[in-house]
User: Fold this.
Amino acid sequence: MEKNIYQNDIHIFIAYLIEKAISLNASDIHIDPKDTQVYIRMRIAGNLHESGYFDSDLLDLCIGKIKVSSNLRSDIHDKTQDGRFYFMSEKTNERVDIRVSIAPTFYGENCVMRLLRPDNDRYKNFLELGMTDSQVRIYKESLKKTSGLIIVAGPTGSGKTSTLYTTLKYLSQDKYNKNIVTIEDPVESAIKGVRQIQVNNDKDFGFKEALRGILRQDPDIIMIGEIRDKETALAAIQTALTGHLVLTTIHAPNAASIIPRLIDMGIESYLLSSSVSLILSQRLIRVFDYDIGLYGHRKGIFEIVPVDNEIKDMIHKKKTPYEIEQYLTETGHTLLRDACLDMYSRHVTTEEEINRITLDLKL
Assistant:
């Protein structure tokens, strides 16, 4: 990459990076400073790929331009900052929302730009996400309920947001006539017919404060972006117990670990057994094209478990993840490892990819 190109017009350089990311269908652009070079990496189908570099003396100019575009403080260099801006692609004629995160590092400020592309519709239907016919049937039955807590689990980058947004689009159809409100950090994409609220912890407007306010606005369905602590978990449970359908996410390796994870947070088991109506865990698996020998798009794999009376009893008795999973296996539920093995047996992906996905499942 020519140094003088960026000195002449840093705006052109940033636009070039975003256009390149769009053409590669990348979800994120990383601007990562090292000793003498700043490396560009792009996340494609879940993995980071090197995509060039430039000299370190141009880093401040680049980050400064991104800060201005994102309405961030240009004079702050020792704290994290989050913002967003939008980009109109000249090549695809689409508007791309860019979510920006900037953080100080030893070699300078690091920047990650997440591309949110409404025209690249990730939120179509449950089958396209990767659910099986039987899983879609079970999931839709749970969405008919007027109260209860539905919890979606998985690590970062496992597709939880896509599942929740697809769910919200499904529930926001006119035939359901529901008042749907979300509390997110941040709002990733606008959904027609849904009121979306973004928290602002810097101004003491977190999940708890936002939830308290929207409960006075007669909601039917509430989506709480993520359970991160006991306070948020209790608020979600109490809302579900008072006649609302609540959707949320949590970081847990599989469905059987969701409830023990909440108990470890300090939530009483009787509250969980009374409120949780369905638990879902998922991953994104790379599909391998055997004709060209490369990984292509990603597909979701799921385990979806409606909370029946037996599971409620196990929750109340604080059974371990192993005991819960053993029950799920005996009753014929499709676990994540089963979904992985099915993908491999049908030559959808490779053994290498299966091993990568199942590392945290202790298989």
